[in-house]
């Protein structure tokens, strides 16, 4: 990263206009309207995802539901397994690194990964800092629960945002909560800009603990300045369409597909529902006869320390 | 009703193309309706043209087949011969053949008698931006300066023809093989005997493939772009085909819709309305 830290918020704005960032956010734009699926092995699962019409796959050793059940420290996947998945499919391959673990990110970049997810699903490696993402050639996606958190990640160089939701539960309630909060925060920023101009934006940026220039840009656009996907608890075609109707640009699905009765069929149905998210007739058709959904865990029955969304800031 | 142009809206850079089209239409003072296309009814209403955007071609292909839109799209492109433009994944969909496809193969719309190579440059780390001299833009009003209507606001994002085009290649395909004998370089057209060329077209009943732009010295420029180095690079071979036209079908490997530069959208609209 050549950026001088002394340039402050202006430095951030100009970074996001350079061609390297545009290539990263441009790939995210090409994923819009699509479904990104967690896959745990190359031969079957990754090919099922590609055949079902996934726009990308997330290579990981255990889906979040298993990470949750088995406990222990969850880390970056074995590079050998990532390479196998890269060889098996022609669509972009993403992989997860632990929050703050910049060396896992360096390794993933060396593997030519198409997107790095700095993810709360894995056990955080740093409880104070997220990875400084601008200097990497590989683009990053990061989770958020609200607009300030999203903007902090974009300031660090994230080219794509997703809701955190609550991974591995099959309960969509947290993803909905986080998306509604992002929408609510954006509405507040828009109102602040309209009523009080730059002064009000700076005051709100102080409350939000985020960059004021980026907040103003968000208020002017009326949406996040990068692509924003839903993640964490999507288990049915209707869940996917719900998140799209709330304003998400696309959907991540993990345990929801491969912890269900008929993974291939459900994967295809969720892709179709994401494409035709406003057409209730198509949604009815693709929700029919999918077999058993993921059993899941109700988030309201969980203790705070069992939730992954609280990891990171 | 104003002429309607559609953007195939299954997935990918849909809104970006719609915005660029609207800006381009405004700069030409043309009244154009721009719609999203997901059904055959919507496709039918696109009397003026269709854009197939970038995205994942594997998904576009599957989605088109699932909604029964693959045949209507083929008819739109090859029988009705309405103007169609594909960028990146859209170029793949409009090619007759594709290599480096997924294991079970992939259905295409076709229309361009070429073979396209998917993910030609490799993975995302090999994606790059490079400045291209697009000669075919030279005669377009998109390239004239702001004195030619449009007003100061509309022309703020326009660039004169002398400026190169900032082309973004994101996991991009290139055309690596022409499948028709009538292929020729657009620049070489004047030297050919027009009568003979007309005869050839009649015999084949398909218009020739025009190569509109190649990526000169692709290996060198790719590495230079990757290293952030600008400046002259020495050409290596003829270069990869990255923009081409065959009759009503236009294709580009790169993404004009991801930039503020609307010259290519203006040019395409001019071809439609000329």
Topology:
The complex is a heterodimer of chains A (313) and B (274).
Chain A: H1 8-17, H2 19-31, E1 35-39, H3 42-52, E2 56-59, H4 64-70, H5 79-88, E3 93-98, H6 102-110, E4 115-119, E5 140-144, H7 147-155, E6 160-163, H8 173-208, H9 212-221, E7 227-229, H10 237-245, E8 251-253, H11 255-258, H12 263-275, H13 280-286
Parallel strand pairs in A: 1-2, 1-8, 2-3, 3-4, 4-5, 5-6, 6-7
Chain B: E1 4-8, H1 14-27, E2 33-37, H2 40-44, E3 49-52, H3 57-66, H4 70-79, E4 84-87, H5 89-93, E5 95-99, E6 112-117, E7 128-132, H6 151-155, E8 165-169, E9 174-178, E10 184-185, H7 194-204, E11 209-215, H8 218-226, E12 240-246, E13 249-252, H9 263-273
Helix pairs in contact in B: 1-9
Helix content of chain A: 40-55%
The strands making up the biggest β-sheet of chain A line up spatially as 7-6-5-4-3-2-1-8
The main sheet of chain B comes to:
8 strands, mixed
Radius of gyration of chain B: 18 Å
Q: Indicate the mean pLDDT of chain B.
A: 83
Strand portion of chain A: 5-15%
Spatial strand arrangement across the major sheet of chain B: 2-1-3-4-13-12-11-10
Number of H- or I-type helical stretches of chain A: 13
Kindly provide the radius of gyration of chain A, computed on alpha-carbon positions and rounded to a whole number of angstroms.
19 Å
Number of strands of chain A: 8
């Amino acid at each position: 990263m050549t950026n001088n830290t002394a340039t402050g918020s202006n430095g951030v704005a100009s970074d996001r206009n350079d061609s390297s960032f545009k290539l990263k956010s441009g790939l995210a734009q090409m994923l819009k309207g699509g479904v990104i699926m967690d896959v745990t092995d190359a031969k079957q699962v990754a090919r099922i995802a590609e055949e079902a019409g996934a726009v990308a796959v997330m290579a990981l050793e255990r889906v979040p539901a298993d990470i949750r059940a088995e406990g222990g420290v969850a880390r970056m996947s074995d590079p050998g397994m990532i390479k196998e998945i890269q060889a098996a499919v022609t669509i972009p391959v993403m992989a997860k690194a632990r929050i703050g673990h910049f060396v896992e990110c360096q390794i993933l970049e060396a593997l030519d990964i198409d997107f790095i997810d700095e993810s709360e699903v894995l056990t955080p490696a740093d409880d104070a800092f997220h990875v400084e993402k601008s200097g990497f050639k590989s683009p990053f996606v990061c989770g958020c629960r609200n607009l300030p958190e999203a903007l902090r990640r974009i300031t660090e160089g994230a080219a794509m945002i997703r809701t955190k939701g609550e991974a591995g539960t099959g309960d969509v309630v947290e993803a909905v909560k986080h998306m509604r909060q992002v929408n609510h925060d954006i509405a507040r920023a828009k109102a602040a800009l309209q009523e009080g101009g730059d002064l009000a934006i700076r005051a709100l940026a102080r409350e939000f603990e985020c960059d004021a220039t980026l907040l103003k840009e968000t208020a002017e656009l009326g949406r996040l300045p990068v692509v924003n996907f839903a993640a964490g608890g999507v288990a049915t075609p209707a869940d996917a369409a719900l998140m799209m109707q709330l304003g998400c640009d696309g959907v991540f699905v993990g345990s929801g597909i491969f912890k269900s009765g008929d993974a291939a069929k459900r994967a295809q149905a969720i892709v179709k529902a994401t494409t035709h998210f406003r057409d209730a007739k198509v949604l009815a058709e693709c929700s029919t006869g999918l077999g058993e959904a993921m059993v899941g865990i109700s988030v309201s029955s969980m203790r705070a320390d069992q939730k992954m969304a609280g990891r990171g800031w | 009703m104003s002429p309607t142009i559609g953007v195939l809206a299954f997935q990918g850079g849909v809104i970006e193309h719609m915005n660029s089209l609207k800006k381009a239409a405004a700069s030409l003072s043309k009244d154009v309706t721009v719609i999203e296309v997901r059904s055959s009814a919507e496709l039918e209403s696109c009397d003026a043209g269709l854009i197939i955007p970038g995205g994942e071609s594997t998904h576009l292909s599957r989605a088109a087949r699932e909604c029964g839109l693959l045949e209507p799209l083929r008819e739109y492109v090859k029988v009705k011969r309405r103007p169609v433009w594909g960028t990146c994944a859209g170029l793949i969909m409009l090619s007759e053949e594709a290599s480096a496809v997924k294991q079970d193969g992939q259905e295409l719309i076709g229309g361009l008698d070429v073979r396209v190579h998917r993910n030609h440059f490799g993975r995302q780390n090999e994606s790059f931006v490079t400045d291209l001299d697009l000669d075919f833009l030279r005669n377009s009003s998109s390239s004239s300066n702001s004195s030619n209507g449009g007003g100061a606001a509309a022309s703020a994002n326009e660039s004169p023809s002398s400026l190169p085009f900032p082309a973004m290649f994101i996991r991009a395909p290139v055309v690596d093989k022409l499948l028709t004998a009538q292929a020729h370089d657009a620049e070489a057209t004047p030297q050919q005997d027009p009568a003979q060329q007309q005869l050839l077209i009649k015999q084949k009943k398909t218009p020739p493939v025009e190569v509109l732009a190649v990526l000169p010295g692709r290996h060198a420029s790719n590495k230079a772009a990757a290293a952030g180095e600008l400046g002259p690079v020495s050409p290596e071979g003829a270069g990869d085909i990255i923009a081409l036209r065959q009759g009503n079908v236009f294709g580009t490997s790169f993404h004009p819709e991801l930039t503020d530069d609307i010259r290519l959208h203006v040019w395409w609209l001019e071809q439609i309305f000329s």
